[in-house]
Amino acid sequence: MSRDLEEKMNNSLRGMVGAGLDGGLTLKISDKGFQYFNPNGDLQEGVNMAAELGGSYAFISALYEYAEVSIPLVLDTPLAGFGKGMAASWTSLVPQTFDQVIPLINSLEMESLKGWFDVPENNVGCYLIRREDEFIRQGKPQTGTMILDLNIDNFMQYEADVNMTRGD
């Protein structure tokens, strides 16, 4: 099963920016955890965060293929610290790999993912968790009860003016 699991993982990894797609890395499972190998077959002592994240997604995706039930994949800030290339790769690969993906994203990630929300075929629901007293475009003041805001415009405009305002 280990070899089959690695094959499934590497099939998924091949489409990911920072790992298989532009890095040509392959992944093996060992007693030391995931080990990455370059196209020449040499062990990579260290890989970037995109490759590590890609390996984790590939592993979870491969395990899902063995499951008899479908459970959602919940991710907290899945793109934090990555560039636009990783965001584009993420939207074209990760949501399609799982039956349901629930990413909890911050406002910077939301900016990277704009355009993906607008395509009806993507079947994306967007919900804003915020403070009741907040001005949407500023994300402050941080007072009031936490609420779930179902307004898509509020979601898309959250903290839009942060770089334009100074002070509290």
Overview of this protein structure:
With 168 residues, the protein is of the alpha+beta class. 34% of the residues lie in helices and 17% in strands. The strands form 3 sheets. The protein has a 3-stranded antiparallel β-sheet with strand order 1-2-3. A two-stranded parallel sheet has the order 4-5. The radius of gyration is 19 Å and the shape is elongated. The model has no long low-confidence stretch (mean pLDDT 83).
Topology:
Layout: H1 2-13, E1 26-30, E2 33-37, E3 43-44, H2 49-66, E4 73-76, H3 84-97, E5 101-104, H4 107-113, E6 128-131, E7 146-149, H5 152-157
Parallel strand pairs: 4-5
Antiparallel strand pairs: 1-2, 2-3, 6-7
List its salient traits.
elongated, 168 residues, 7 strands, alpha+beta, 34% helix, 3-stranded antiparallel sheet, two-stranded parallel ribbon
The average pLDDT is 83
- Percent of residues in helices comes to 25-40%
Tally the helices.
5
Through-space gap between termini = 57 Å
Report the uncertain regions: none
Find the structural class using helix and strand composition: alpha+beta
Spatial ordering of strands, largest sheet: 1-2-3
What's the order of the H and E elements? HEEEHEHEHEEH
Beta strands, count:
7
Shape: elongated
The share of residues in extended strands comes to: 15-25%
Report the sheet with the most strands, covering strand number, pairing sense and barrel closure.
Answer: 3 strands, antiparallel
- Supply Rg: 19 Å
